[in-house]
Amino acid sequence: MINYMMPDYEVVRDKELCIKCKVCVRQCANNVHVYDEKRDVLYADSSKCVNCHRCVTLCPARALKIVKTDHCFKPSANYTEDIIKDIYRQADTGGVLLSSMGTPKSYPVYWDKMLVNASQVTNPSIDPLREPMEIKTFLGKKPESIRYREDGSIETEKYPDLELKVPIMFSAMSYGSISGNAHIALARAAEALGTFYNTGEGGLREDLYRYGANTIVQVASGRFGVHPAYLNAGAAIEIKIGQGAKPGIGGHLPGSKIGPEVSRTRMIPVGTDAISPAPHHDIYSIEDLRQLVIGLKEATDYKKPVIVKIAAVHNVAAIASGIARSGADIIAIDGFRGGTGAAPTRIRDNVGIPIELALAAVDTRLREEGIRSAVGLVVGGSVRSSADVVKAIALGADAVYIATPALLAMGCHLCRSCHSGRCNWGIATQDPELVKRLNPDVAAARLVNLVSAWSHEIKEMMGGMGINSIEALRGNRLMLRGVGLTQKELDILGIKHAGE
After folding, report:
1. Per the CB 3.0–4.6 Å rule, which of 272, 380, 422, 450 could disulfide with 409?
2. Which residues bind [4Fe-4S] cluster 1 (predicted)?
């Protein structure tokens, strides 16, 4: 049979530097590197390479590098190399193309087309090293007004909420899609930072219940791992309606990732595919959603806030308005550039809208309807830096979710092969030999370093704006200016162009 596919990458070995230690052979989970004992030669099958950099990073002689292949197709603006290769793949397999991580396509990134305003003379900047700076935030429903009793105590009822020392949380990544060591690292980092991590739809291992005060448990359409103890183990419950990388599509964890521990946690048989339906079969209206919200609150004695997570789609503002009236305490919106463990490639690359536009539209709609204080607002899906966090909050978010940056901090090299289960860095895998490559203590420390660094930068940027609290930044779109945007884009974002 003719192989029409050529490798995307080539492994280049410097024979003068190579000491034939065979570290590359032992470390590659994809069997790219092979040692021929008879000929005493190391060679590489580049067709298997996913460009994870494991061999390059660990080669003691620095004898390896991975390059983009220079094999080319005849140029065509219509039938690009990627399109041709995708057609070859589907002609070979007859299957749906699967991809991991966020879309690599060059859609506009609106974070990069917004600039932050700065204070000068009449409204001086603030030095965060010498002056108080508050980045703590609270997520949940806020009372419209505060009433006091005659003795000065507060009479107004306080709703269940989440207290975040930093306006950054770790987004939903399920046990099964990522390893147990990765989950441990996220939990430990969340506890150390005074924030939260999300279990995703895979349930929660009992040994992680101790981190419950910093855990958000998720209820998805498949209801994997959902039981009363699980619901009560976390500080909040998230109902997953949609995910930014695959709006309108359910979840799928291959049976190869369902080992004994994942099986027990998810409450499904070993080796069976874990498939979440696209819809929740008990939710076909806002009224149905309200029933689930109230049911979860009943199950937890009304002590925990309920989050509803949706994907960013064209009518997201209207959907959010309905969710705010369903009894939910927090709305989480996931943009189409968000990452995923596995999604149909065509869905990931073509469905949904950017989180920046969705966030601005939702915040505007809720304010116009006078219900913005009825819910907290969290956004995710390609929040890549502290600057993105600041811009998100200025557009109206209370806090953000991050996932891909968290994986990168733990050692991920964005090789986009999470769905294969052969993660060379021990993150997106259940193979015991690969899982142990990720040290949860080291990974947790790196996560703490990342968020701590972002927190310092957030304070610096706020100080430059003359703002000393995150609450004063929230929804303060006057502090943003657009560059290279159309008037329609500026109107949706609710900001002015630079120079105005």
Report:
1. 450
2. 18, 21, 24, 59
pTM for the full predicted model: 0.93
The verdict on whether residue 28 carries a ligand-binding annotation is yes
Q: Where are the alpha helices (DSSP H) in 221-315?
A: 228-233, 260-266, 286-299
55 marked among binding-site residues:
yes
Query: Does 423 appear as a known binding residue?
Result: no
Q: Measure the N-to-C terminal CA separation of the chain; round to a whole number of Å.
A: 63
Place of tokens 């929740």: 280
Q: ∠ CA 268-270-275 to the nearest 5 degrees?
A: 50
pLDDT of residue 254: 81
Compute mean pLDDT per 10 residues along the chain, 500 residues long, and list them.
83 95 95 94 93 95 95 92 92 91 93 94 85 94 84 82 97 94 97 97 94 96 92 97 91 84 91 86 93 96 96 96 96 95 91 96 97 96 96 98 97 92 94 95 97 97 94 95 97 95
pLDDT the model gives residue 4: 79
CB atoms within 10 A of CB 363: 23
- By the 10 Å C-beta count (0-12 exposed, 13-18 middle, 19+ buried), 182 is classed as buried
Q: How many domains does the chain have?
A: 2
3-state secondary structure of 11: strand
* Same domain? 71 vs 156: no
169 DSSP β-pair partners: 401
Residue 355 lies in a domain: yes
Is 49 within any annotated ligand binding site? yes
Contact 93, 1 (CB under 8 A): no
Domain residue limits at 246: 137-497
Classify residue 165: in a domain, yes or no: yes
Distance, CA of 164 to CA of 400 (rounded, Å): 11
**Do 137 and 161 contact (CB within 8 A), yes or no?**
no
CATH number, domain of 297, equals: 3.20.20.70
